Amino acid sequence: MPVQQTPPGQCPQCWQHAYDKSIHRRLGPREDCPQCVDHMRNGHPYLVPKKASRWW
Question: Distance (Å, rounded) from C-alpha 15 to C-alpha 28?
Answer without folding.
Answer: 21
